[in-house]
TrEMBL record:
Major localisation: nucleus
Family statement drawn from the similarity comment of this UniProt entry: Belongs to the Mediator complex subunit 27 family.
Subcellular location: Nucleus
Taxonomic lineage from the root: Eukaryota, Metazoa, Ecdysozoa, Arthropoda, Chelicerata
Gene: LOC113796009
Species assigned in the record: Dermatophagoides pteronyssinus
Entry GO terms, CC: mediator complex
Ribosomal protein recorded as keyword: no
GO molecular function, one term: transcription coactivator activity
Top-level taxon: Eukaryota
GO-annotated biological processes: regulation of transcription by RNA polymerase II
Protein name: Mediator of RNA polymerase II transcription subunit 27-like
Length: 329
């Protein structure tokens, strides 16, 4: 505590020295005259008063300097030393002037100080923007109708009916072979067949097969039905009417197995938890672009086949066909 009082008195002495020095320099600057004025006014009384005032200011400055020296002699180092860590080793180097440690430390200190200052300003700016975004988000969510994943079957049927009117060229059939989950059976222009498994209005799984394939399990009852209807039938389309479905067995054609992989990647792209109805619409619009699977050419190489495969990859935004090797990144 005593050392703090001594430091305060020393700082006051420094301020008094600076004030006395400033007064002396101002007096000398204000009394400066040009050579013509000095020759015109050669009054000895004025010269004596000037020298006397300058002498008094010098004496005051000298007194303030002595007071500062006295205050500095009363200062003593604090008992608790400052922990300088590894920087204490710099003083042990006899050739410290030849090294760049100290300038590098000064540059690092300035850089850290600027970083701290800029980070503080950035935090304040981001905090202001974050509060604005939160207020806008509250306004949007207050007006938004929150949809639940556990929708009843009646609501789902009404929504699928609206989709059917929008996609009149793509028949959509709603079945529930598993009781809880809704399955959409889609036929696309004699090109492919697809099943979409929904949990509420969220797409869980997509399986694509050729137009000649089906999704029913080949049980003994189904085989008996087929033989009764057409003993020479090789195409099982619309012959199996059993309630059981196989939504996991992939197509026997590589083209449609590849499209299945693309469809399951697309459901992640179009996933929107707060706009589930829009996600299904966008996905069906993208799936409808496969109606020209075997007739469209690749937008990049301008050919229909590459490695014996048609353009199986369609852009998620423009729906343009590409070969998987030609797709844009």
């Amino acid at each position: 505590m005593e050392n703090l009082n001594t430091i305060n008195s020393a700082l006051k002495a420094v301020s008094l020295v600076r004030s006395a020095t400033l007064d002396t320099l101002k007096f000398m600057a204000n009394t400066y005259q040009s050579s013509k004025d000095v020759e015109a006014e050669m009054d000895p009384n004025k010269n004596n008063s000037y020298m006397g005032e300058l002498s008094s200011l010098s004496n005051v400055l000298e007194t303030r300097v002595r007071e500062l020296e006295t205050a500095c002699t009363l200062l003593y180092p604090t008992l608790s030393s400052i922990n300088l860590a590894n920087t204490e080793l710099i003083a042990q180097d006899p050739n410290y002037e030849k090294t760049t440690w100290y300038p590098d430390m000064v540059i690092s200190y300035r850089w850290l100080s600027n970083t701290q200052e800029y980070s503080t300003l950035a935090f304040q700016a981001l905090q202001t923007k974050f509060s604005k975004r939160n207020s806008r988000y509250r306004q949007r969510t207050s007006n938004r109708v929150i949809q639940n994943h556990n929708l009843n079957n009646h609501s789902i049927d009404i929504f699928i009916g609206q989709l059917q009117r929008s996609f009149d060229t793509m028949p959509i059939e709603v079945v529930r072979p598993f009781g809880v989950f809704t399955v959409l059976k889609i036929v696309l222009d004699r090109t492919l067949r697809a099943v979409i498994v929904l949990r509420g209005l969220v797409i869980e799984w997509v399986l694509v097969k050729s137009f000649e394939e089906n999704f029913e399990k080949l049980t003994s009852n189904n085989l008996a039905k087929i033989s009764e209807r057409n003993p020479y039938a090789t195409n099982f389309i619309d012959l199996i009417q059993d309630d059981t479905m196989d939504i996991w067995k992939p197509s026997r054609y590589k083209v449609f197995r590849t499209i299945t992989d693309h469809c399951n990647a697309a459901i992640l792209h179009f996933y929107a938890p707060f706009q589930m109805d829009s996600a299904i619409k966008y996905f069906l619009q993208w799936l409808r672009s496969y109606s020209t699977l075997f007739s469209a050419v690749c937008r990049k190489c301008d050919s229909r086949l590459l490695n014996d495969m048609p353009p199986t990859w369609h852009d998620f935004r423009t729906h343009e066909p590409y070969h998987f090797e030609c797709r844009p990144y």
